[in-house]
Each structure stands twice: as structure tokens, then as C-alpha cells.
Amino acid sequence: MEREIKRDYYLEQLIKRKGNGLIKIVTGIRRCGKSYLLRTLFKNHLIESGVDEEHIIEMAFDLFDNIEYRDPKVFYPWAKEQFKDEETYYFLLDEVQLLDEFVSVLNGLADKKNCDVFVTGSNAKFLSRDIATEFGSRGDEVHMYPLSFSEFMTAYDGNRYDGWNEYITYGGIPLVVLAETEEQKMTLLDNLFKETYISDIVKRNKIRNVGEMEALLDVLSSAIGALTNPNKLQKTFKSVSKSKITATTITKYIEYLEDAFLIEEANRYDIKGKSYIGTPLKYYFMDMGLRNSRINYRQMEVTHSMENVIYNELRMRGFSVDVGNLTVVEKNQEGKPVKKQLEVDFICRKGSKKYYIQSAYMLGTEEKMAQEVRPFLKINDSFKKIVITSDTPKPFYNEDGILMMNVYDFLLNADSLEL
Questions:
Q1: CB 356 within 8 A of CB 379
Q2: Residue 60: which H helix or E strand, with range?
Q3: Model pTM?
Q4: Whole-angstrom distance, CA of residue 314 vs CA of residue 72
Q5: pLDDT tens-digit profile of 121-142?
């Protein structure tokens, strides 16, 4: 029996937006499941809810068969011909950034009273980081990620501990998850990088020195969870490979990688000063399998992997996520006051909700526990503080009111932060 991966969260997002008069845009890294969501799961929902198949109009702009339709002078007349009556027509358009003048074309379609437009796109620059502005307040974005751990487990035949090991090694790209053997998974990840992501970025941005950008990707892969910035990275290049790459070029390459949804940056936030610090900052990979494939499955420290997975999970749940910085003054052994910088792994916010989160793979000893909760005890507000670990048996609050929780409870329960 073929394994089916549940993407209920995203399907619900599309169903809720039906008929709202806006252009629904599913964004996300290529191969994360956008096409399957739109043209299988959502299409099936439409049919099951009584929509006639002739009122569902599909177009995949990335297929060679449809290459002529990338010309708006070909596509738009074809699209208008599909309207035969006054019933609602659902347009499901895949990889829309390949359609020339797509903003005005989609706005033209959305103008029709009986047209509901749903599209997917794989590039932030083309689709603009601010979708609503790009479409004159008519865009409605649903951002899709590779599989979360709970989605991954719907297709994994085994216990959550083995599932976790596989997930942090090979990630959540559906194609990779459904591959049968480790060898197949590794080959797929390698090919995806070369033939899809790198080739897309190079073509789109007309990059001449591909080796330079790939070298940067390798450095970022090795440094997840570490504070860095373009100037620091430039020094690394200079000392390790005598490279003459400039900080400006590094900044540009990082933007390209972010636009392709391969990496995301988390900014540092001064908790006491209530302001952003600027650099250095942290970069996280949107998929652990892609990250590991870049470093040939070396440096597989589970501490950094867990931190990256927690970051992605918080983003999938719709939080904005920053790295917390706390300046404290403590006395040294001579009794003199000394300034120290403490770090909170994540400050996440959504509306009026705010959480402080530490990712600690193993607590083990009293000292380790004290080290992880120490920054929390210096924060003078009443927002919930949580330590996520792999060795807490079940969620509990310690005597300081800090919630201790294991990573499985956090990832497998969508409401885990409300415990």
C-alpha cells in the first residue's frame, strides 16, 4: 500500500480561504509538497465538496508541455476561454513565478466574479517577501515547509525514537521521506541540491562563480546554531582557502539562499533593552536532510540538529522567532562586578503570545540544568519559559515555574506550548 503523508494543516488553510476574493499563494522551497497540496489534496477536496471537474482549471508552468503558456499573451486568452457559465471556476496554477507578468495576469483573473485563484511559487524574490503589496493587497500567502516531525510520523513505520533519528538525518522533503533505502535518500538529496536548488539559484541570479556560492553553503551548513555574519564568514574564507570573496558578495549569496527558502536568518534581540542588536545572527536550514547532504553527513551533532528542528517547528506554527540576548552584571571571584552575556535560544511571538525557549539535548546533571535555566531567572516578565530536552520523561513545571518538556511531546502535540 502506498504511504500517504498527511498535510491537513495546509489543506485547512486553503479551505478556509476559499471564495475570499484574494489570490491564494502557496510559497515554499521546491519539492516541499506544494503541487501535491494544490493539485491532489485541495483538488480532491473541491471534487468531494461537489465542484464539477470542468470548473477546476489546472496549469503547471514548470512542465515542458506547458512552456508556451509562460507567455501571458498565450496563457491569458486560454484562461478566459475556460469560462463557460456563471458558476465559480477554480484556477490551480503551479510554479507561477515562471509565468511572465504573472502579477497583472493573476490580478486580471481575480477580477472576475466567478474566479477563485490558487497558485504555488518557489521564490521569495519573484513573489516578493511582502505578497500582499506585490498583488496590490490582493495576495493571501500560505507558507509551506517540508514535513514537520508529526507529519513525517504519519508516513513512518516505526517508533518515534527511530523516526527522530531518521528525521534529523534525512529531513522532511516528501520525495526523500518516501524513498525506501538510505542510499536512495542520500542520492535524492544530493541530486535535488545539484539539479534543482543550485541550478535554480544560479540561473535566476546569473551567478558566475558557482563554486564560491557552494563553498558558502558548506560553511553555513557547518555553522547552524552559531552566531555569525558576512564579515566573520569572509574572514573564514580568507584564512581557510585564501579566498578573496568580499562581505558584500557573501551578503548577496545569503539573500539568494533565503529567497530560495533554503535557509532563514534569526536576528538577535536584547531582552532587557527591548531592541534588535543587528549582527551577528544565526542561520537555520529549512530541511535537515538538505543541510546534512551538504556536509556529507559529517558533524551530525544532535544538539545543533535539535535546535534547528525546534526553530523550524516554531516557524511552521506561525511564530516569529528571534535569538535572545541578556546582559547581566555578576560578581566575580574577587567580588568585582563583571558584565556577562547570556543567551536564550529562542524568543517566539505570535499576536499577544510570547515564549522563551531553551533547546538542551541532555540535561543530565544539576549543573547542566542550572546553566540552561539561568538566563530565565534573570528575565523580569511573566511570559512562559520552557526548556525542551530529549531526556525529560513527561512535561512538568520546576520550582521556578519553568516548563520542562521532552522534544517528542513538543513536536508531536500542536498545542504543546499551552501545557
A1: yes
A2: strand 56-60
A3: 0.91
A4: 38
A5: 887 666 655 565 677 678 888 9
